[in-house]
Structure formats: structure tokens, C-alpha cells
Amino acid sequence: MWNKLKKMLDEKQITTYQLSKLTGISEQSFSKLRNGLSKELSFSSMVKIADALDISLDEFR
User: Fold this and answer.
1) Which of the ends of the chain has fewer CB neighbours closer than 10 A, N or C?
2) Own/partner pairs for 13-17, CB < 8 Å, 24+ apart?
3) How many CB atoms lie within 10 A of CB 57?
């Protein structure tokens, strides 16, 4: 999951800090995902991220 999210962030030139501010999802949640402590995002988190990055939820597949 992190690899997909990281690719999207790189394409949009957005940091996890900026994404955290846009979505209300803590930076700690992104850190856990990046470090393998968490493997998945909740559906509501994916919706917030998709909205913030102006992408379709299908891109998380």
C-alpha cells in the first residue's frame, strides 16, 4: 500500500505532512504505513486521500 501511496504523492509533489493537513489523517499513520507497522488504510482514510489528491479510489487497487 505504501508504494502506491508514495508514487501518488511523488506525482502530485505532495509530502506526507501536506497530505496530513489536507486529510486530517495523522502523520503517525503514514509513518506506520511507510515502516510496515500498518499494511492497510481504512476505507474512510482512502476516501480522504483520494479527495485530497483528486484521484479515483480505483487507483488504490
Assistant:
1) C
2) 14/53
3) 12
Q: Enter the DSSP assignment of 60.
A: G
Q: Distance between CA atoms of 46 and 1, rounded to whole angstroms?
A: 11
Q: State the residue for C-alpha cell 489528491.
A: 53
Task: Give the angle subtended at the CA of 50 by the CAs of 23 and 59, to the nearest 5°.
Answer: 150
Angle, helices 16-23 vs 27-34, to 10°: value is 130
2-43 pLDDT tens trace: 999 999 999 999 999 999 999 999 999 999 999 999 988 899
